[in-house]
Amino acid sequence: MKLMKFSGIFLSFCLLLSCDKNTASDMNTAPIVPSGTPLTYLALGDSYTIGEAVSVNESFPYQLAARLKTANLNVQLPKIIAKTGWTTDELQVAIKEAQIKTAFDMVTLLIGVNNQYRGYPQDTYRKEFKALLQTAISFAGNNKKHVFVVSIPDWGVTPFGKNSGRDVQAIAQEIDAFNAINKEETLALGISYTDITSGSRNALTDATLVAADGLHPSGKMYAEWALKVAGAVETNFK
After folding, report:
1. What distance lies between CA 175 and its chain's CA centroid?
2. How does pLDDT run across 169-205, given as a tens digit for each residue?
3. Which of 32, 105, 108, 125 is deepest in the core (most CB within 10 A)?
4. Helices and strands, counts by H and E, the chain
5. pLDDT at 231 (0 to 100)
6. Where does the SGNH hydrolase-type esterase domain start and stop, copy by copy (predicted)?
7. What are all long-range contacts of 97-101, with beta carbons under 8 Å and residues at least 24 apart?
8. Which ranges of the chain would DSSP assign to H, the alpha helix?
């Protein structure tokens, strides 16, 4: 009888240890983002972010969110703070006016083409872009790995650019100069940087990459951007 009683106690003790071990194992392997929990996404920029001249679903942020879902990253439809024609200072003003109090799981930033178009000083762009980077980091919960900067495309190769009366080569050089600034400041902070500028220049010979307005990217070009940025997002969210 005593032997049977001891065996029963020993068996119960082993089962208890087994349960505790399994529970600890489950806790240690729990994902940072619970399965099925949608990731929030904030997109900051100008016409290239709002998707001027294309449907909302063809815009870069919407296509990025859709592509990430195919990679098992459940991303919500993006909240967008962007408007055609905005410069760095106008975007910062709009962000303040939006009075957003919540953090986001990921933030994209694409800004600067209108600084170049209007002939604004490059040193002013650097200062304001650096401020926007800090704003983006703050929106990402101070997690630099969840901020993704996209380079400025070259509008000079579009029909609008070629008919603008401006030197196409000069436009390209200025775009490169502005991109050198945003790339330098982005990488200095250890933030992801995606170069879409070289691909945007394919519009010089491929009309399907330009929207009907002859200036902005088509949904096809935005899909190329989304593919490239998605790769960076997937890497940083692993």
Report:
1. 20
2. 999 999 999 999 999 999 999 999 999 999 999 999 9
3. 108
4. 10, 5
5. 97
6. 43-223
7. 100/42, 100/139
8. 2-28, 47-50, 60-70, 88-98, 113-117, 122-139, 159-162, 168-188, 197-200, 219-236
Which residues, listed in sequence order, are joined to residue 210 by a DSSP beta bridge?
217
The Cα 209–Cα 206 span in angstroms is 6
**Would you mind telling me the total number of residues written for the chain in this entry?**
238
Extract the runs of DSSP E, i.e. beta strands, from the chain: 41-45, 79-82, 106-110, 147-150, 192-194
Give the pLDDT confidence of 46-82 residue by residue, as tens digits.
999 999 999 999 999 999 999 999 999 999 999 999 9
DSSP letter assigned to residue 158: S
Query: What angle, rounded to 10 degrees, do the helices at 168-188 and 122-139 form?
Result: 40
The CA-to-CA distance between both ends of the chain, in Å, stands at 56
What CATH class is the domain 36-236? Answer: alpha beta
Place of tokens 């982005």: 186
Q: Give this prediction's pTM.
A: 0.85
Contact 104, 41 (CB under 8 A): yes
- Candidates 118, 109, 122, 204; CA nearest to 155 is 204
CA atoms within 13 A on the CB side of 237: 23
Domain ranges of the chain: 1-30, 36-236
Residue 179, token pair as written in the block = 């991109």
Q: What are phi and psi of 41, to 5 degrees?
A: -140, 125
Residue 155's contacts (CB-CB under 8 Å, 6 or more residues apart) are 113, 117, 161, 171, 175, 215
